[in-house]
User: Fold this.
Amino acid sequence: MRVLKTASSLPVNKNRKMFIKCVICYIVLELFRAQMIETIFHMFPFFFIAKCVDISLSSCTDVTYTQTMYPNFLDQKSREVIEYSSEYILISVLHNLLQGECNPDLRLLGCSVLAPQCEKDKVIKPCRHVCENLKKNCLSAFDAIDMAWPYFLDCDRFFAGEEEGCFDPLAKLRGEVVVEEDLPSDLPATFIQFKHHSYSQMVSTLKKTASRCSHIATTYSIGRSFEGKDLFVIEFSTKPGHHELLKPEFKYIGNMHGNEVVGKELLIYLAQYLCSEYLLGNPRIQTLINNTRIHLLPSLNPDGYELAAEEGAGYNGWVIGRQTAQNLDLNRNFPDLTSEAYRRAGIRGARLDHIPIPQSYWWGKVAPETKAVMKWMRSIPFVLSASLHGGELVVTYPYDYSRHPMEEKEFSPTPDEKVR
Ligand SMILES: [Zn+2]
Assistant:
């Protein structure tokens, strides 16, 4: 029996054959194209030079540079690959694992390997000495949680020596990223410019001032902010760095509320003024420095300041940057010893000095900035201090809480009430 081909079966078979042919053709073409690209790549490699691209990793938004290049040092070829990698996840959680130790240094170091700096389409390696220093300081924190130093932070493998040209991924934390502004050369050496200072510019100005007056000034850090910025102090005395018996210790703190910037700028200006006037022979300033050890901490809340400064003066509400990066108000974060003193005042024979911090205080969140000031106060016997705020004409003294818990606004004038 002969099977007759129906009218409809003919085109179907034809179509199938055509389809198979097309697929084969497509595969051949693709192979050819890949081969061609490979060949062209080898013939004209300059067409394929990798380019700098913007960094868009959420854990690395605060690095000091803006561009990186793929693949990175771990041969991860795209942002997506990096984001799903165990290395990236690790640097994102290291802060919690190490309970805040070595933060944010380790994360920034990790970013410098996962998203290295790229400039003019050239990738730059992070500095080996920075890696080695951090490893030395942080190994005990890793030991404490039984964890090895991460392989991708191998200082020998992914980092470079200074002679090879490297970048310091932690420069920002030490305030070393400063764009210098050229001033006219005919200005006197004691000229002081009144302007706003970023964190880096502040640190640089304080260090420069201390080196200009190195016989009467020095800088030091009392600790670090939540985001890891050093809390820089400039000190003036005839014996910088040393307490002298019976010489009074004085301190000014500024910018406790990050968005209250006047105190911070005034203290930076005051530091430069003290140095310049001492050099110029101003007798009042010389007497002050010769007889007092003066400590100025212009910014206790540098993280909040940077946040407020980013917003810009005209747009900043009164809350942005007021708190720390941990969302704590430093002005409400110290222990309330005034209420404790009032309570003790009613107890016969109870001491009103050297009141210990109540245990309950430590149950709350204590900011690293607060702890740094408490440690500072324990290490130096300050006799007079002030913290400069902004936005209101008011002076508050110790014991400024109302003695009666029910009467919050009890008027209690100080001897200088008339000065107002
Ligand atoms: Zn304030």
Observations:
- The chain is about 35% helix and 10% strand.
- Residues 1-10 have pLDDT under 50 and may be disordered.
